[in-house]
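Self-study notes.
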Amino acid sequence: MLKIMLAASLLISSSAWAASIPQLVYDNTFADMTYPSVAGGYLVYSQRVGANHQIMRVKLDNMYGSAQDVSSHLTNEVLRNGVALADGSFAYSDNRLGHITPWLSNNQQQSSIHTGAFSAALLPNHLDVAADGSTWVVDTTLESARTQRLITQHNNVKLDHELMGQQWRIYHERLWQKKSGYPDTKTGTSNAFAQPNIFIFKPESAALTMLGDGFDASLTADGKSMVFVRENNGNYDLWWQNIDGTELKRLTKNTYADLEPDVSPDGKRVVFVSNRDSRGDVLQTFIHVLDIQSGEITTVTSGLGVTDGGPAWLDNNTIIFHSNRDPKSPNNNTVDNWRLWKVALPK
């Protein structure tokens, strides 16, 4: 287990949103920390130290104390997609069986979930679980020609820093690898990759249901509905659907990319990542909040050359997310290290 030091709060000035002051949660220069998840008084996140991958779990009332973790032990073993459950257990995906499968860590016991359904042909590339553990959702490509590339990318223990914090990029032909430059994510940008599909499964009944195309789904607390991303002609928008397939509706319609949603505990708001403020720049993404009923969208973070991602609800008024902001100059530059930050919503 790793000891985590509390960093001093850092202020970012913003004339547009004076109430939105991101604060550094963990100041770990030796670790990349990404994709936080919160449920039932627990925080779970993914961490990489060198080539060692871990899923970390801490208590919200003692975030800077000792952490429970699951670490990679086998050569080229990679753990990703840590998800907190209300009872203190947590889900993640792992390749230790030779292919990528979902796992559950409960009281230090590791159990592979629905092993028979997942194989080299069905990969849980993104994962979410209802707070009570009753419902799981994953997305995967059904293009056999792309399966091996996705496996290789998941299994890459030294995956580039840039791609670690932008997992949504694996589904676009022009974004999935590190390059010197990328096309803007906006309507009209071609993508030769077919859309992935979303699957719902229930561990108790072993039922596996394929819904429509989309990815990066976030379940509501009761596991009955989800918000997910759908890409069409270069445009990424957020959609809502019940897991029984009913009430499909579009939540955002924007020229640029809306990504990585997380539904609030009360089901009334969605926090997400977007590059709408940077006009489609892949490497300048910020945190936004959508009020589902009114459709109002609030910009929560901003900066120059900043990549914010993986937002989750720390509480009803606070968002936790990962970012490559520079702690010494957090509104202007980026550094080669993902850290966890938090920000209060504007009032």
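Second protein, same conventions, sequence then structure:
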Amino acid sequence: MLLQSLRLRIVWLPLFALLLAAVAIGLIVGQYPMNVSDVMASLLRGPGMRLSTAHDFTALDAVVWDIRLPRVLAAALVGASLAAAGATYQGLFRNPLVSPDILGVSAGAGLGATTGLFLGLSIIAIQMLSFIGGLTAVACVYFISTSIQRHDTTLVLVLAGVAVGTFLGAGISLIKVLADPYTQLPSVTFWLLGGLSSITLRDVALILPCLVIGMIPLLLLRWRVNVMTLDDEEARALGVNTTNARVTFIICATLLSSAAIAFTGIIAWVGLIIPHVARLLVGPDFARLLPASALVGAIFLILADTLARSMVSIELPLGVLTALVGAPFFLLLLARSGRQST
């Protein structure tokens, strides 16, 4: 027991160190060559140099403050949010295969956001539609899974999520057909691929309150998710109002995922594979799993975005890259768990 507690304490310091290293890599690596001293000098000068003379605010400062810093901050926030939402869904539904993608949350949020793009609405309205779409999707999946009486509830939940996600995906395809091919369709298609190329510091300031509002209740009430893994009767016997707790967790997790999707598009697999990685590091206790998932998710998406914009001369869509990395990694996790069970 003492060794296990010591091992868990040792995990956190490397995770924070890796996060700092990922931030440094994200600021330094790219098509525009930089070194650590250049980046540090630009950060110390601050964005206010833009307000003085054109000579003071150099091209290096523009790259750091207008491109790389917003992308690194957004990648950290979005990665942490998607991973935390995935860990919450998995604990709440007692199913390790659940994620915002599997539950149809990504498709619902995507349908809401593409509708807003199609109608030419503001980013606030797009974000609201994204949240409403994601919440509606997860509510439909949960209602369907609880209405169908079967012994294999995991299978019903996954199949319901696939069905709802497919239905909502058809709505997205319909919007793409109706969109103007010269003005609306390119922006909708590019957004659906997922990416951070158009993120600014203003966008980070807009997305941050939504993510804080969604994350704080999960952090404060994270011990209740452990209780929610029990049967509802046992959870109520321990003093937990299962209905209120479930609704609160679903709303918070959906707000995290849909707010991230509204700004970055659909970035798949983060909410599914990152909680599994965090579970290997800190165990299944949700009190440790939630912050570990957020840290690992932030590290992963910062490095993935850095790779997407620096691997080749053109920028790769972030959602495509995470799918290329995530699918084989998830198969590796499945093979590892299969070997452990035999």
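Instructor comment on the second fold: The CA atoms of residues 48 and 330 lie 44 Å apart.
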